[in-house]
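Z., the sequence and structure:
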Amino acid sequence: MKMLNLTAGALIAATGFSSAAFAQTTLTMWYHGAGNKVESALINQIIDDFNASQSDWKVELESFPQNSYNDSVTAAALAGNLPDILDMDGPIMPNWAWSGYLQPLPIDAAQFKDFLPGTKGIYDGKLYSIGLWDAAVALYARKSTMEELGLRTPTLDKPWSKDEFMAAMKAAKESGKFDAAIDLGMSDKGEWYPYAFLPFLQSFGGDLIDRTDYQSADGVLNGDAALAWGDWWQSMFKNGYAPGTSEDPADHENGFIDGKYAFSWNGNWNAVKTMAKVEDVEFLPAPDFGNGSTIGGGSWQFGISAASKHADGAADFIKFATQDKYLAAFSDAIGLIPATKSAAQMTENYKEGGPLAVFFGLSQAQAKKRPVTPGYVVESKVFQKAAADIADGADVADTLDAAVDQIDADIKRNDGYKTH
């Protein structure tokens, strides 16, 4: 009888422990990486580690293809079905915050003081999102080509001027060794255009919108500096220095590797593959067209939906996911820039003296976020069309004036995108 009592007691105790083990509150999370096996494995490992590290919360992941992700979030917001944790592309965040999809992170911003500026999603003075990585664009070149063409190697402290850049384009074209001097990735007509090409406009002294109040594009997208940019931009295609909008997408991926182009304007996400096939590749800073050398900043980041009833748990997960070991793991696996210098030192490519350490420096010194405004979701598409049209030969002044009219009309239609 005593034996039976002991057994029953043990069973009750075991059942009690089992109930406690399954008492974790579920946190739902959406992610844009469906179909990317490496990225999916990494994010699932972080989730598994977090779920095993404590007994309060259990994160459950649902992944979406990147191309349909934003539409899925918008539809869910309208239906009142947002998850607790979202990831989002950095420049989209202000629109989602303004639209009421997000809540500010209940995390002291000081926790992320050492993170690269581009990884911090700040809108209306509040931190809404934080990223595990950033991305940077550089001018890919071969050392052997630079020597053959007699070109100075630009540095962060002394990038190429406009004249030096154009001299390099001319030298490459006149060498007769390449299909074109540079691949700009014109086949990728999505977010690549404002991310990769807006910095050229900014270096000329223009911009997509007046950032003093984000109320108009007039004077910055169609002023003298923007017109000068447009004329230069059009000349790159008119003079045959770069393939235009009909470029084969495969050439942006492999054209530089295959020797079709002397240079490529490309992201660090293609650097590892390129290094494996081009022994003497080097990554050079953006040219300075008169107002500084600039590249885009801001990549995918984590945030908490406004609908979440468990913001404290979601915040715990985000703090857990942003540990250096995970920043380094993502970097080693998919080649992106770790969000912190300490994480970079833990990686093969971005540690001091590593083959991609230059990209950390580029991001730290040159990165400029795309306009931090809810209207960016419209402005980016307007810029994409304008840049493509100008490349295809459209009148520069008329195209930029029309772009300004579209952007200003959208701002007016949305009452200046004032915060709710």
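Confidence is low (pLDDT under 50) at residues 1-21. The longest strand covers residues 25-31.

Let me know what you think.
H.
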